[in-house]
Design a protein that fits this description.
The chain is built from three helices and seven strands; from the N terminus they run αβββββββαα. By secondary structure, the protein is an alpha+beta fold. The chain binds zinc ion (ZN).
Length: 168
């Protein structure tokens, strides 16, 4: 089922997601729905906050057409344990339609979490996968790329988004 993607200024995007402690059928359905929603958008990643759920769940597929090199990732309770280097790149976000910002991220990250079967997992990532992991983990902490943009760019987008949501 494709879920509704929450967009700015929905307060759930500012919320801090809680650790997943119970891996049950409802959680598996939610993960499947998040994957479906990500592909339908289409996007390369989605955090649970973006579908209105404050649980630490992210899904990422940076290359949906080539499933060999980077498979689909579904990760629970992710945390960055090591971050090295820095790289800048332009990012967009499904929750911030029409917004792009150049964001500085760690170039290489080592992320720990739990997979959808409850098994401890470690992912070492560089490039786009490293960016996607940091972007989605930020969402779970209540942060978006809007926080990383320049104050001017941020206030222009906020004005535009608030005008649009008032008109709806
Ligand atoms: Zn995003």
């Amino acid at each position: 089922m494709v879920l509704k993607i929450r967009t700015y200024p929905d307060p759930v995007l500012r919320g801090k997601a809680k650790e997943v402690t119970n891996i049950d059928g409802a959680l598996q359905r939610l993960i499947d729905n998040m994957i479906e929603t990500m592909y339908a958008a289409p996007g390369v990643g989605l955090a649970a906050n973006q579908v209105g759920i404050l649980q630490q769940i992210l899904v990422i597929d940076i290359n949906p057409r080539q499933q060999t090199e980077y498979p689909l990732i579904a990760l629970l309770n992710p945390r960055v344990v090591t971050a090295e280097g820095s790289a800048e790149g332009e990012e967009g976000c499904l929750s911030l339609p029409g917004f792009n910002a150049v964001v500085e991220r760690a170039e290489r990250v080592f992320v720990k979490g739990v997979d959808r079967e409850g098994k401890e997992t470690e992912i070492e990532a560089t490039g786009l996968l490293a960016v996607a992991l940091q972007h989605e983990i930020d969402h779970l902490r209540g942060r978006t790329i809007l926080d990383k943009a320049s104050p001017l760019k941020r206030s222009l987008y906020k004005k535009r988004a608030l005008k649009k949501s008032a008109a709806e």
